[in-house]
Known about the structure:
The chain is mostly helical. It has 15 helices and no strands. Helices cover about 75% and strands about 0% of the residues.
Amino acid sequence: MSLATDGADLSRPLPVPVRAAVEPSLAEVKDYVALMKPRVMSLVVFTALVGMLVAPDRLHPVIGFAALLCIAVGAGAAGALNMWWDADIDRVMTRTARRPIPAGRVTGGEALAFGTTLGVGSVAVLGLVAGWLAAGLLAFTILFYAVVYSMWLKRATSQNIVIGGAAGAVPPMIGWAAATGGLAVEPVLLFLIIFFWTPPHFWALSLWRSEDYARAGIPMLPVVSGVAETKRQILLHAMLLAPIGVTPWLFGGAGPLYGLVACYAGARILWLSFRLWRAADAQATDRLAKRLFGFSLYYLFALFAVLLVDHWVAPFVAAGLDAIGLGGVDLAGFGLGGAA
């Protein structure tokens, strides 16, 4: 018998706290999936995939799949750690009150352990599978989002989205580094597109969710500086985003098809931002902010999807033309054929 039980009356029932400690968790698999922010994760995986596929070197499909899985798990880890830290403000925001922790289905400790395990595991495996540069970039992304953005910037400054956007902009660089073992101008341009896309995207959301952020004490730009200043900042950042979105074509990393789509999408996001800036009343502001938020999702998807088309469809078309004896046809005239 151990010293802890020597002389104890073992006939008495266990104290209530000890009984509670062995009760099963209320969490289900879907709750842990929700902790990983699957919508954000899907965007991270897509942009990382584009960075991986437009790189000049090709990964073995199995290694590429493993690398993407690690990136997805790392993004999920950052989401879980963000929800663990933000549980107090999630409880008072309408948009987040039904998340697993504020709803009481997952405890803070469980979320912390889950996120930490996923984060460490994803970085370690990615390093072994695809190299330590890609793993280091993934570790930076997780730490920047979970620590720099969630624990500091989000509650400290109205520029939280501007600076914090760096975390969400790194995945194309991770994909490129996984494929090549290094970095180049092309993934940096993709980083800049996402970085300058983030403020108008999230500020548009915050315009019609400003009461939620104010109630939670989060210094989002509309709460701190007002609606008019937020609309002005959205327009200014859209004016930066539109030309940056065209740079992969201007620098020779994409063909005319990408340039055409990027020019149209940039003009569209500029026009919506201008209309939002000119909106005269709250109802028009909310309506246009929602339209801008929705289109901004299409904007990013369209640019990255067309970049894939530019790099992957054109070679197949060229091979088909060679097979039927039309190999001399200039694909650039059809808007296809970026830099190899």
